[in-house]
Known about the structure:
By secondary structure, the protein is α/β, with parallel strands linked by helices. The chain has a single domain, classed as Glucose-6-phosphate isomerase like protein, domain 1 (Rossmann fold, 3-Layer(aba) Sandwich). It has helices at residues 15-35, 38-48, 60-76, 107-118, 133-137, 163-182, 188-192, and strands at 54-58, 80-82, 96-100, 122-127, 140-143. A five-stranded parallel sheet has the order 2-1-3-4-5, sandwiched between helices. β1, α3 and β2 (80-82) form a beta-alpha-beta unit. The longest helix has 21 residues, at 15-35. It starts with 14 loop residues before the first helix and ends in a 7-residue tail after the last helix. InterPro entries: PHI/rmpB (IPR017552), SIS_dom (IPR001347), SIS_dom_sf (IPR046348). It catalyses: D-arabino-hex-3-ulose 6-phosphate = beta-D-fructose 6-phosphate. Substrate binds at residues 62, 101-106. Its EC number is 5.3.1.27.
Amino acid sequence: MTQAAEADGAVKVVGDDITNNLSLVRDEVADTAAKVDPEQVAVLARQIVQPGRVFVAGAGRSGLVLRMAAMRLMHFGLTVHVAGDTTTPAISAGDLLLVASGSGTTSGVVKSAETAKKAGARIAAFTTNPDSPLAGLADAVVIIPAAQKTDHGSHISRQYAGSLFEQVLFVVTEAVFQSLWDHTEVEAEELWTRHANLE
């Protein structure tokens, strides 16, 4: 039994707890997203629509967010691959690797960026750390001013680990997709034709 559990084994979460923490998450995401430099994001968005394929690479929850972004970019009509999938081809010159790491030091993500750079591909990165190895490899960097997952005593966020980074990463990638779509005359019905029909 954990300290959070009562003697009868039940955790006494009540509605007020949920209300308070919904407000916490909402406010932290809104405050942090407002601090992201929109010009950095615009540069990254322009990289996405340059000629070439788009590859995404991330670890853990950041990687899951990039998978969602990859889906939306596919709906938009781009050729998108997720690093590590069995059908993902080799990246090459002219392609874009979209990566995310809060610390900017995640070994597998940095290695992917190094490999892509050697192949002549462009790198676009999301991170909290502008001085990180990942940021140093990138042609376009978006700094998300959230706590790193190892910063357990941070005043930046009351949430656990890298939650705030991952939440804002999702919001920013959604804003990128929406902004790209806004600059087209493509109807939602056309995007819908690219949704998966094998489920």
